Amino acid sequence: MTARILAIAGSDSGGGAGIQADIKTITMLGGYAMTAVTAITVQNTLGVSAVHAVPPEIVAGQIRACIDDIGVDAIKIGMLGNEATINAVADALEGIRVPIVLDPVMIAKGGAALIEEEAVWALMQRLLPMATVITPNVPELVALTETEVEDAADMLLAAQELLNAGPRAVLAKGGHLEGLSLTDWLVTRQGHQAFTDAKIDTTSSHGTGCTLSSALACSLGQGMTLPEAVKRARTYVRLALRSAPGLGQGHGPLGHGQVINDVTAPTPVLNQITLPATDYGASLAFYRALGLRLIVDKPENGYARFEAGNGVTLSIHVADGAAGGTTVYLESLRLDAGVAELAAAGLVIDQLPQGEDWLWREARLSDPAGNRICLYAAGEARRFPPWRV
Predict the structure, then answer these.
(1) Separation CA 200–CA 230 (nearest Å)
(2) Torsion angle, CA of 145/147/152/153, rounded to 10 degrees?
(3) Which of 222, 311, 333 is nearest to 267 (CA)?
(4) Predicted confidence band of residue 266 (pLDDT cuts 50, 70, 90)
């Protein structure tokens, strides 16, 4: 069944953040997006110039209309704006027992305030205790805990303090801290876990917080564990950042439409086939003539990879013996757990999951006819390896 995800947030006329980013993210990840619009913003990549709040009773009415008829599997809460709206949302969600992701939106990318100061207390008292996970960035951690946050240790202390306010987990986002890497900390009452990647240098970062929280909600609504959901959501954001179309004169939107077949399905998806080749140059020319885009060109290894318009990739490999044969690649978000389940069911695993030099994590087995199957997890390295053309 399709996961039903309700996004409660403001509308961004520029399409990069808010409800618009929520709908794009949920749709790309295979969920069904419903909305309760809390505010209408006059906004583009240069900033927010005006905000019109939707009456609280209309916000609550949208929530009830969706849940009473369609039902809901997870909820994402973003921009709320004022105390009356916060109370209306909390009242409408009373008794709802599905994962709730709370993104405490306070300041827009351009610096505009998106919540009244007096509303912060209501947010802490009414909605934090209802949240499965809250996703503050560093400025929001500072505002919610009234503490200074200058490094990872400060982040963890602030997240722990926020955890004591009632949510079941805190995902503290470290993008505002200095350094070439970015670390997000998932803090629960059982401990904490770091998720670290290199920062992506881009000005097309509008809506990253909205996108991350929506991806989290969709993943939780599809039955993933919280750590699995965090990993998938972060990968989605990073792929969308790398695929950004470069629109606008300021902080541009993400490239949601290009996050194809990478992290969309919780079950294994067919993403890659490697075919044997005898003449590298002739095969290169053939598949380019078919309209496939060359993304890896390694003639010294006899290897090239192409990408189709829907994100699926095809490789050629000139080699002797088994290395040059056909291999079908299925991408799996649950590689290790999935392989363990297959082994328990009696399937013979030729290679247990292991990291490879090309930055994929792979397991290998054969079908009844002897065809080679590779189950893998690659994340960004599937379409954005360091050696990409």
Answers:
(1) 18
(2) -100
(3) 333
(4) confident
